[in-house]
Design goal:
By secondary structure, the chain is mainly alpha-helical. Helices cover 54% and strands 4% of the residues. The chain has three domains: 3-56 and 63-86, no CATH class; 120-214, no CATH class; 219-344, no CATH class. It is built from 13 helices and four strands. The radius of gyration is 37 Å and the shape is elongated. The relative contact order is 0.05. Residues 1-40 are annotated as: Disordered. Residues 15-39 have a biased composition (Low complexity).
């Protein structure tokens, strides 16, 4: 009997490497070949039944059970794969993909460092990165909660011991103090900073109060500036974007100084400031009407002004009289107002 008369089944690749070299065998070898064929046929039939069973009931199999069976399968020797399997084999590509995605998911991320606080010029950037970093580690309450921050744990506080609370406070203090420049540290020392302070809330509040004050800023100066601010001022270079950035800065400083300031006051000052520039008189008038109806929020104002600035840049007319479209749907041109739907106003 030649080897060509023995046609292996779909599992014949798992047979011994020497099986393909048999040309003429003894009765014993032929008996082995017959037995092997029967074994492969039985295994193929059992695997087919398992595939059907798996298609019907695969959703009942838990992930852990499936993973254990996969490991058992790949740990078998080649000659052991003829034993009937209770479930069909998973696609190797899927297993590799799962392992790859799992390893990528658990790779540590490189977090950006907290920037060094140089002074009033990067106070907002420093504050933003500090809060985000603390929030990532679940420690932001130590500086965002009202004074004195996170209270000392009591006997019934779940999941927090006094030692853990002390370590958390020390860690937050270390992150804050370690990000201060020498000049900022000197400014804090002249403002009453105690180097031995262990309450991070005290240090954080002092920084946000002392740094602007050292630059000659306080609530009164913020209000005076808002009362006269205008995009036409030389310091803005004719840029509406610079005007908006300064408005945002003044608003944030007021929120730091006054926990619950009147946001409507800042909106009124911002809209009136636009009217002090002849390029935006009509825009200011329209936004004022929206403000009277209660339809103007800070986010919408900034969005409208950002759109105006973008169109000025695109047309190459920044700092010059031009046209713009607000979220209200109106096309405004300096000194004259045309509504898209209503003609000349």
């Amino acid at each position: 009997m030649s080897s060509s008369s023995i046609k292996g089944g779909p599992l014949s690749r798992w047979t011994s490497a020497s099986s393909g070299t048999t040309a003429c065998g003894s009765p014993t070898q032929q008996s082995h070949s017959t037995t092997r064929q029967q074994t492969w046929a039985s295994a193929t039939w059992a695997t087919g039944q398992s595939i059907i069973t798996g298609m019907l009931y695969h959703h009942k199999d838990s992930h852990n059970t499936q993973q254990q069976r996969n490991e058992q399968y790949y740990q078998r020797l080649p000659q052991q794969h003829g034993i009937p399997m209770p479930l069909p084999l998973p696609p190797p590509a899927l297993e590799k993909t799962t392992q790859t995605s799992s390893s990528v998911r658990h790779q540590p991320l490189e977090l950006p460092p907290i920037p060094r606080l140089l002074g009033n010029e990067n106070l907002d950037e420093w504050d933003d990165m500090l809060i985000r970093t603390l929030r990532l580690h679940g420690l932001d309450d130590h500086v965002t909660l009202p004074y004195p921050g996170v209270p000392e744990p009591i006997e019934h506080t779940p999941g927090l011991t006094f030692d853990q609370w002390t370590r958390d406070r020390s860690l937050v203090c270390l992150l804050i103090v370690g990000s201060l420049s020498a000049d900022v540290r000197d400014t804090l020392l002249t403002s009453g900073y105690d180097p031995g302070e262990t309450n991070p809330k005290v240090v954080y509040d002092l920084i946000r109060d002392a740094i602007p004050r050292a630059s000659g800023e306080d609530v009164a100066s913020y209000l005076r500036e808002l009362n006269s601010i205008s995009p036409a001022e030389p310091r803005f270079g004719g840029s509406l974007r610079e005007y908006c950035l300064r408005l945002g800065y003044l608003r944030r400083r007021l929120y730091v100084s006054e926990p619950q300031p009147n946001d409507n006051l800042v909106l009124v000052m911002a809209v009136l400031g636009l009217a002090r520039d002849e390029r935006y008189e009509d825009l200011s008038m329209d936004l004022g009407k929206e403000l009277e109806k209660g339809a103007l929020s800070w986010n919408r104002l900034m969005g409208d002004l950002a759109g105006v600035h973008g169109r000025e840049i695109k047309s190459g007319r920044e700092g010059q009289p031009g046209g713009w479209i607000t979220a209200a749907g109106g096309l405004f041109i300096a000194k004259r107002t045309y509504m898209i739907a209503g003609g000349e106003a």
